[in-house]
Amino acid sequence: MMQRTQLLLPLAMEATVLAQQQRGMATLKMISMRLKSVKNIQKITQSMKMVSAAKYARAERDLKAARPYGVGAQQFFEKTEIQADEKAEPKKLLIAVTSDRGLCGAVHTGVARLIRGELAQDEANTKVFCVGDKSRAILSRLYGKNILMVANEVGRLPPTFLDASKIANEVLQAGYDYTEGKIVYNRFKSVVSYQCSTLPIYSGATVEKSEKLAVYDSLDSDVVKSYLEFSLASLIFYTMKEGACSEQSSRMTAMDNASKNAGEMIDKLTLTFNRTRQAVITRELIEIISGAAALT
Amino acid sequence: MSFVKNARLLAARGSRLAQNRSYSDEMKLTFAAANKTFYDAAVVRQIDVPSFSGSFGILAKHVPTLAVLKPGVVQVVENDGKLIKFFVSSGSVTVNDDSSVQVLAEEAHNVEDIDVGEARQLLAKYQSQLSSAGDDKAKAQAAIAVEVAEALVKAAE
């Protein structure tokens, strides 16, 4: 090893000397290489923007259809004013609705940050169900023990009700009897804005303790159980739609910004490239002319 | 004890309802499925839904209830008396105390859009699946599929 470095050292020194001699030329080459790679990056971000714009248009259309559905699914919980039993030991479940794909601004980090805040308050009695790899990647470093389950392959295709019911099924079969829960997701507001929000979910036991439930006619625990299972799937479906739409719109903005920044970089690099080229030409001219002048 | 409490709750609610009857006379229906939204807080006259505890009709001021939808036909009578039928696969019905009704289905389609022939083929396919199903889980899944397909054929006819 030592021998080899000793061998390499004079070689390296020689190379630096060579580079210093040909500095103008080398930087010219380097600038043009850099310019090329930035141009390629711009092409990629531009086409990603186009793709996400098309996906966003579809996601927004889907979301428009799914919004009344989500609002309808929340109505029962709002009207019955269910509250978590404070006396019982709280066991919280957080469902993080993200996706597998990155390059979309702070969509996933926002969700993860909210969950991190919750976990910082009460780490022992909280579990997290991650929908999408991104939330797992962010949370697993600090709170790996709190992750109950991860669902991946989310985000490549628009979410369907089948995906949501699979997740709901896993939540119910995980054997974690939560007393209260929250779905953490990004609520889509407009193309340029989304908001990280939460939706409450309740277990059957909590709902049955609610006072206002007495107003509802002909209920048995079976009906309530099936009803809650279905409403969990509906809520997950709705939040996944919201999340997908926010993600696509945010990716569109992020990629637009990246293309703009790449454009700026290209302008600057072209300027430096031209300037350097001119400098090299001028220097060569001076060398020729002064060489010729020395001869006469 | 709880009966007395319930009765008192109901009585208190009744008197409150009587006061603001003016706007709870109409029934607001939200009928949405994962694939499409049919009504979004629209005022309708009557809704008939098939549920596991029996089919029932809902008019304005129906007693609040929850129910789980069974595969079948949901009928909506709009305010002008027009009757529209929808096929639903499964879902839930919520009737709230302010006369708002939420019918949420996993999938719903207008009955006119169903092809009888295709529906019969589906039924035959799932029936053969049911008879060839190996374990209990596959059998239960096939049984549910047959139930849905039967309702689909019945709705289409």
Automatic annotation (TrEMBL), chain A:
Positions in coiled-coil regions: none
Keyword Transport part of the UniProt annotation: yes
Record localization: Mitochondrion inner membrane
Lineage summary: Eukaryota, Metazoa, Ecdysozoa, Arthropoda, Hexapoda
InterPro entries membership: ATP_synth_F1_ATPase_gsu, ATP_synth_F1_gsu, ATP_synth_F1_gsu_CS
Subunit relationships: F-type ATPases have 2 components, CF(1) - the catalytic core - and CF(0) - the membrane proton channel. CF(1) and CF(0) have multiple subunits.
Gene it is expressed from: LOC108051464
Membrane topology, record value: Peripheral membrane protein
Family: Belongs to the ATPase gamma chain family.
Keywords in alphabetical order: ATP synthesis, CF(1), Hydrogen ion transport, Ion transport, Membrane, Mitochondrion, Mitochondrion inner membrane, Signal, Transport
Endpoints of the signal sequence: 1-19
GO terms for cellular component: mitochondrial inner membrane; proton-transporting ATP synthase complex
Gene Ontology MF: a single term: proton-transporting ATP synthase activity, rotational mechanism
The protein's name: ATP synthase subunit gamma
Gene3D superfamilies: 3.40.1380.10, ATP synthase, gamma subunit, helix hairpin domain
Keyword Zinc among UniProt keywords: no
TrEMBL record, chain B:
GO molecular function: proton-transporting ATP synthase activity, rotational mechanism
Domain (ATP synthase F1 complex delta/epsilon subunit N-terminal): residue spans on this chain: 27-108
Transmembrane regions listed in the UniProt entry: none
Highest taxon listed in the record's lineage: Eukaryota
Location(s), subcellular: Mitochondrion inner membrane
Function: Subunit delta, of the mitochondrial membrane ATP synthase complex (F(1)F(0) ATP synthase or Complex V) that produces ATP from ADP in the presence of a proton gradient across the membrane which is generated by electron transport complexes of the respiratory chain. ATP synthase complex consist of a soluble F(1) head domain - the catalytic core - and a membrane F(1) domain - the membrane proton channel. These two domains are linked by a central stalk rotating inside the F(1) region and a stationary peripheral stalk.
Full protein name: ATP synthase F(1) complex subunit delta, mitochondrial
Gene from which the chain derives: LOC108045279
